[in-house]
Every structure is written in structure tokens, then in C-alpha cells.
Design brief:
- This protein has 297 residues and is an alpha+beta fold.
- The protein folds into two domains: 2-131, no CATH class; 176-296, Immunoglobulin-like.
- Helices cover 54% and strands 23% of the residues.
- It has three helices and nine strands; from the N terminus they run H-H-H-E-E-E-E-E-E-E-E-E.
- The strands form three sheets. It has a four-stranded antiparallel β-sheet with strand order 6-3-8-9, with no helix packed on it. A three-stranded antiparallel β-sheet has the order 1-2-7, with no helix packed on it.
- The termini are far apart.
Length: 297
């Protein structure tokens, strides 16, 4: 009887042990399945995060190129190229890192934060440079406008000075008035037929001008034929007018006192003359002081 009780007790213990082992096996089975799902979910999250990080790295690499477009600062451009290269290296490393490598992905995430902050610092720096450039552009525009205004003032002053100088120059020049050109025949009478003309008589009045320097003056008479050629005795008889040597027909010395003065000059015809208009020009001190014409048949 006692042996039977021992046998039953051993059986119960064996059953209980079997039940416990079965329960433990079931627990381990479901626990491992739960952990497997958790690992799978974590891997998926790392995959998503890894893709987002790759997109952000790629975006920063593109931004570095865009930031260089309007820059002229070579030093800053080199810095941007260096940061772009570093960003591309981190991007390539991220692409080669498996999503299950949580430790390295975490490190690359920290690196991304650094890249982000560096990018922000360059954005602030470039924005600051842009503001400075805009200010300089405005200042340059203002200075340029001032320069243009000052240039206009100087140009106007120059024009005014030239006008004043011309007025002074004109005021200090002699002037001839009441000019007459009289063709005369051999009897000293006025003649209208060219074939009978033996002399040209030119009368004029030197106008009073107290601003002109007094003293001896040389009056040059230049008479031109209808073809524009000057009547002259000698091709070497020339005077200077506006940096050109002109041939004169006759010259006369007068003593100018500043007062009005009557002058008469003559040209004796010694050559064949054709019908047409003859013009007498008068010059003193390199300035033409008057002219008058006469037409002969």
C-alpha cells in the first residue's frame, strides 16, 4: 500500500514537471515571436529614418551648389565646396550602412545635425553678405548720382567759362562796318562791266572799341574770284587764320587808337576777270572782321 502511494506521488510530480516544461516552452515560443516582431518593427523604422536622412543629406549637397551661384567671394566658395564634399561623403556612408546597424545610423544622425547647423550658419553669413552688397550697391548708386550731378555742374561751369571767354575775346576784337566794294574803270569811275574793271576799291570803318589794345595793326584784304580763288600778286603773300595760311590780295598798316577809323584799300587788276561774284574779306590780328560782295556782268 505504501509502495502504491509512493508510485502515485512520483507520477504526479512527473506530470507537474511536464506541465511546467510545456508552459515554459510555450512562454519562450511566444516571447521569441514577440521579440522578433519588435526587432522587425525597429528595423522598418530605421529604414524609414535612414531614407529621410539620405534625402536630407542630398538636399544639403544641392543647396551648397545653389548658394555658390551668386557669390563672387572665392574664399567662401571654397568653404562651401569643402562642406559639400563632406556632406556627400556622409551621404555615401549612410547609403552603405545597413538599417540594422543602429549604432552607426545614430552616429550619422548626429553628423546630420552638425551639417544642418553648418548649413544654417552659411545661410546667415550669405544673407549678411547680401545685405552688405545691397547697401554697397545703394551707396554706389548714390555716389554715382552725386558724381553725375557734380559733373554736370562742372560741365556747365566750363561752358559758362567758355562763353564768358568768348565774349571777352569778341569784345577785344576789332570789327569792320559800312563795308563797300567798288569796281572802278581806268578813269576812276564805278564800273559794272567786268571787261572794263581795272581796280577794286574797298572802303570800311573800324568800329570804336576801347577794350582792344591800341597800336599798329595790319589789315589784310583777301578778294576771291567767282571760283573761290584769291586775287594775288605773289603766292608767298600769306597770313595765318585759324591755323591755316591764307593768301592775301593787299595789306595795310594802320595806327589804331581805340576810336572809330575810316580805312580804304585798293587792288589793281592785272589779270583776266570773269563775270560773277567777287567777295572782299578783311582780317586783323588773325580774326575776320568783316566781308562784302559785289556781282559783275
Amino acid at each position: 500500500m505504501e509502495e502504491t502511494k509512493k508510485s502515485n506521488t512520483g507520477l504526479v510530480i512527473a506530470i507537474i514537471a511536464a506541465v511546467l516544461l510545456a508552459a515554459a516552452a510555450v512562454y519562450l515560443f511566444f516571447d521569441s515571436r514577440g521579440k522578433g516582431r519588435e526587432i522587425e518593427e525597429m528595423t522598418q523604422l530605421f529604414e524609414i529614418e535612414k531614407e529621410e536622412m539620405e534625402n536630407e543629406y542630398s538636399g544639403y549637397a544641392v543647396q551648397y551648389d545653389e548658394m555658390k551661384v551668386h557669390l563672387s567671394n572665392d574664399s567662401l566658395i571654397r568653404q562651401l565646396d569643402k562642406e559639400k564634399q563632406r556632406t556627400q561623403q556622409l551621404l555615401e556612408e549612410l547609403r552603405q550602412t545597413k538599417a540594422t546597424n543602429a549604432a552607426r545610423i545614430t552616429e550619422l544622425k548626429k553628423e546630420l545635425a552638425t551639417v544642418r547647423e553648418v548649413m544654417r550658419s552659411y545661410v546667415r553669413q550669405i544673407d549678411s553678405l547680401d545685405q552688405v552688397n545691397k547697401q554697397l550697391a545703394r551707396e554706389n548708386t548714390r555716389v554715382r548720382q552725386q558724381y553725375q550731378e557734380q559733373t554736370k555742374v562742372v560741365e556747365q561751369l566750363t561752358v559758362d567759362k567758355q562763353i564768358a571767354e568768348e565774349k571777352v575775346a569778341l569784345a577785344s576784337q576789332l570789327d569792320a562796318a559800312a563795308i563797300t566794294v567798288t569796281p572802278r574803270n581806268k578813269r576812276g569811275k564805278e564800273e559794272k562791266k567786268i571787261k572794263n574793271v581795272t581796280q577794286f576799291m574797298v572802303n570800311f570803318t573800324i568800329v570804336k572799341n576801347i577794350t582792344v589794345k591800341t597800336g599798329e595793326k595790319t589789315v589784310y584784304l583777301r578778294i576771291t574770284k567767282p571760283d573761290g580763288e584769291a586775287l594775288g600778286k605773289d603766292a608767298g603773300n600769306t597770313f595765318q587764320y585759324e591755323n591755316v595760311n591764307l593768301e592775301y590780295s593787299a595789306k595795310k598798316y594802320i595806327e589804331y587808337t581805340g576810336e572809330q577809323q575810316e580805312v580804304t584799300m585798293y587792288w589793281d587788276v592785272e589779270e583776266y576777270l570773269s563775270a560773277g561774284t567777287y567777295t572782299a574779306y578783311l582780317f586783323v590780328d588773325g580774326v575776320m572782321i568783316g566781308e562784302q560782295s559785289v556781282t559783275l556782268n
